[in-house]
Design goal:
By secondary structure, the chain is mainly α. The chain is built from 10 helices and 2 strands, in the order H-H-H-H-H-H-H-H-E-E-H-H.
Amino acid sequence: MIDPLLLVELLALGLVAGFLAGLLGIGGGMLMVPWLTWILSQRGVDAGMAVKMAIATSMATIMFTSLSSVRAHHKRGAVRWDLVRGLAPGILLGGLIGGAGIFALLKGRSLALVFAAFVGFSAFQMLRNKKPKPSREMPGTLAQIGVGTGIGTLSGLVGAGGGFVSVPFMTWCNVAMHQAVATSAALGFPIALANTVGYVVSGWRLPSALPGAFGYLYLPALLVIASASVSMAPLGARAAHAMNVQQLKRAFAGLLILLASYMLYKGLQA
């Protein structure tokens, strides 16, 4: 039986993460990882292991949130499926590399610092609001596979759906902001699938850190957060299409700065 306070915490996290997944195309992972790290730490899990469990569990929930979010964006015709097809093969490869290989080798402290660095950089790029050259376009197929591999690997290391890299990259290539958010939401599923498989493989023999934990995955959190987030993602997607581009960028950057600061603190503390 799950602790009632834990249930409330996880439900609240799932509702907020689902809304932000639809709003910003980030899969919700960048919110879930810091909060799950805090929740697990409060229940006696070692700081380094708490970071790893938070990353893996967050990524697993994105499989469900992404499907709900992208359905709402697709109804509005905002998903660039041509870009999804170009980036997805590399994302699957990168996800397996990150989840099954590098993730198991790095300490929780290092992963927290990697999270803080890349999320903070993404926020800085958004706030700069530097206009891309009008002639710049998305690269060709081979280059998209390479970019996808990088996105999948980084996402596996920080437990996020890839929006913190893919949205800035696509807007840098003159993809419209609303299309970039919607396409990022669609990319969340292959990212989450590949990385979750990797986490299961790399954490197969680990002892259970908490009742209900399976390797790096904390199954009660996965069940509760996924159920709550799926219901909220379509509302976030609807809100995204009602906002102007500058509002969306500022909201994205503000969230990233807060989360990067917290994970920097956790990384230095671990």
